[in-house]
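Example 9 (inverse folding). The structure is encoded as follows.
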């Protein structure tokens, strides 16, 4: 089972977005039969089988084993991945293209870069899994609180200079066996969390 599977096919994306099938995928992180699933999701076994066939047809669930139970064979299935992510390639005609424009301070360009990363990483993970090779990646995720907007701008400028310096130091376009790597650095505000007030209204937490 993969940790995350990236869905690129539009038909597969459509199948996965059905609420009942999404619930079944969540339940199938652990192997189960249609009978066991029917109890968990509160649906007739025949209805669960119908959804399982659609999920299996599109490679979202896999057969783990078959057990003889009385006069029938009980099929044990498991989700192909613990989590799923739909690639922008599933909406290829309207997926964002970061090559159309470049603006370091544009939230839309940042989103386009993130979409490209999902699309490329999905293909790379699938290729590495097929070749049974480890994929070399690196990521940093952290938080920083700025006192002022000026501090944030200064940080962004220094970060850009530091990254450019590192790229200049290690980039070798003439390396005969060199492998090109994609480098994306992002900085964006953190989402505010909300709590329900006694009146039922949401309140922002800074």
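The amino acid assigned to each position is listed next.
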């Amino acid at each position: 089972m993969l940790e995350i599977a990236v869905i690129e096919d539009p038909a597969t994306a459509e199948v996965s977005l059905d609420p009942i099938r999404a619930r079944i995928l969540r339940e199938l992180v652990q192997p189960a039969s249609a009978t066991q699933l029917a109890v968990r999701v509160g649906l007739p076994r025949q209805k669960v089988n119908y959804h399982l066939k659609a999920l299996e047809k599109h490679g979202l669930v896999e057969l783990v084993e078959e057990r003889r139970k009385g006069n029938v064979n009980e099929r044990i299935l498991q989700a192909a991945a613990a989590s799923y992510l739909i690639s922008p390639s599933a909406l290829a005609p309207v997926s964002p293209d970061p090559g159309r424009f470049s603006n370091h301070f544009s939230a839309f360009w940042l989103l386009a870069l993130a979409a490209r990363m999902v699309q490329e990483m999905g293909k790379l993970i699938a290729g590495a899994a097929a070749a049974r090779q480890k994929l070399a990646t690196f990521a940093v995720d952290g938080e920083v609180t700025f006192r002022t907007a000026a501090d944030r701008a200064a940080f962004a400028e220094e970060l850009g200079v530091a990254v450019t310096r590192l790229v200049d130091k290690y980039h070798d376009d003439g390396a005969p066996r060199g492998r090109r790597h994609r480098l994306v650095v992002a900085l964006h505000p953190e989402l505010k969390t909300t709590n329900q007030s006694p009146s039922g209204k949401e309140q922002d937490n800074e």
